Amino acid sequence: MSGKRHPAGDEFTHYAHIVPAGVLTGVFAALLALTYLTVAATWYDLGQLNFWAAIGIATVKAALVALYFMHLRYDHPFNAVVLLAALLFLFIFVSLALLDSTVYQPDIRAWQEANPR
Fold it and tell me: What pLDDT is stored for residue 12 in this prediction?
């Protein structure tokens, strides 16, 4: 440092973490492979597992982006706790919405049968 103090004090100074290009290239290659896997999963009928396969692949891709491109892996652990709490609440809200939608499934099926494509 040049001897100057940060206006807000030393405890608020933050230096960016520099990720090696090899790590970023590896994560990019993994994201490309997972994208191919997402497309390849549509070629097979896995029944109910199609949804879970798509969600699993998307979760891994989102985790890679958050950890490496958003630098969560190298950041303060509290930020990871905030992210996980937000994801937990998102899961709860989506789950409640999906539970409510099962009530309307008979009406939706009846409408689909009455109005074929």
Answer: 57
Secondary structure (3-state) at 65: helix
Where residue 44 falls (left for φ over 0; alpha for ψ -120 to 50; beta otherwise) is beta
Q: What is the pLDDT of residue 29?
A: 97
> Which regions of 1-117 does DSSP assign to beta strands (E)?
none
Give the pLDDT confidence of 71-80 residue by residue, as tens digits: 888 888 888 8
Give the H/E segment covering residue 85.
Answer: helix 77-101
Residue 85 belongs to domain spanning: 76-117
Maximum CA extent, the chain: 77
Clarify whether residues 66 and 17 are in a common domain: yes
CA distance linking residue 51 with residue 58, whole number of Å: 11
